[in-house]
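Hi everyone,

Forwarding the result from last night's run.
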Amino acid sequence: MEFKINPMAYSGMMFSLPSSIVDENIGLASSVQLKAILYLFRHSALGESVTCAQIAKAIRYDEEDIADAMIFWLEKGLVLKAEDDFSSILSESAAPATHTETAELELSEEKVRPKRVVSDIPVSKPSHEQVAIRLEECAEFRELFAEAQARLGKTIGYDGQSTLIMLHDSYGLPIEVILMLIEYSKNIGKTGYSNLASLGRSWAENDIDTLEAAEAYIEEQTGVDALWNEFRKLTGAKNIFPTTKQRRFFSAWKGSYSFDAEMIYLAYEKSIENTEKMSLPYMERILKNWYEKGIKTPMDVEAEDKKWAEKKNPSKSDKNKSEKDAPSYDLDEFAKKSVHLKYKKKTES
């Protein structure tokens, strides 16, 4: 059966779409990703910016799924974040105009583990019929789907089934590792299928394809989550778990620099003081500078700040020093009081 467009469809209002959505991404994108990008382009044609909450309400998905969908299109370069949009989910403050995103590269390259490159999931997703055949032929996949549904607490439809199959076939993740990935995603509150695909790709690129490697990764990330939770209590940050960008920075600050939440909070305060917002690249520069100078505690920070203030304003430093060296009493006043007491004692006798 063949199909064509009804000419009458062109009589209503129209909006344009980049051909790359179809030519390059229609096989990669999930249904929620395609619905989200259609909604976004429709309203962009009206000159509007939209939030995750608006998209979620319109296409009837959770905000978490919409945030994952937007990350997919951000990575493809078809979407940009409008100022203050998506802030409830992707709550990251951009650096001021004078600080470029290249600061992120200051997470020293020698400290970043080399990745093996993993290509995108193939353009052609398995069809409904192919998924059904795999389920019929492979008992492991039946067990995977059943266990995944039990862990996620929801029925897994075609989008979920095709994603799990491709995590195995395209990224080479064993069934038991995929189940650990699902459990970890559940624990951090990100169970959208696009998130599972993105995280699965990251695991494949970093050779996290065994139970031992997955356990080590989860243990490391659990430590990052604990560090973020301490920081969140100090700052009042709303998101319970760090976003992808926040996680990358906090992982380096914990693993490479060995800083605790208190030191990160001090860097946060300086970021607020100097940029009026939480800027992760700005905090990175501060913490990297402290690390290189051997500054490890709040007392070290205080000493460094004092040293910097003295260097910046030496005249004030000399004044403070002279005041510090001066006696805590007035010698002239002391002499006057001494004479007065002697005279008073003589007259009384």
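The mean pLDDT is 77.

Cheers,
N.
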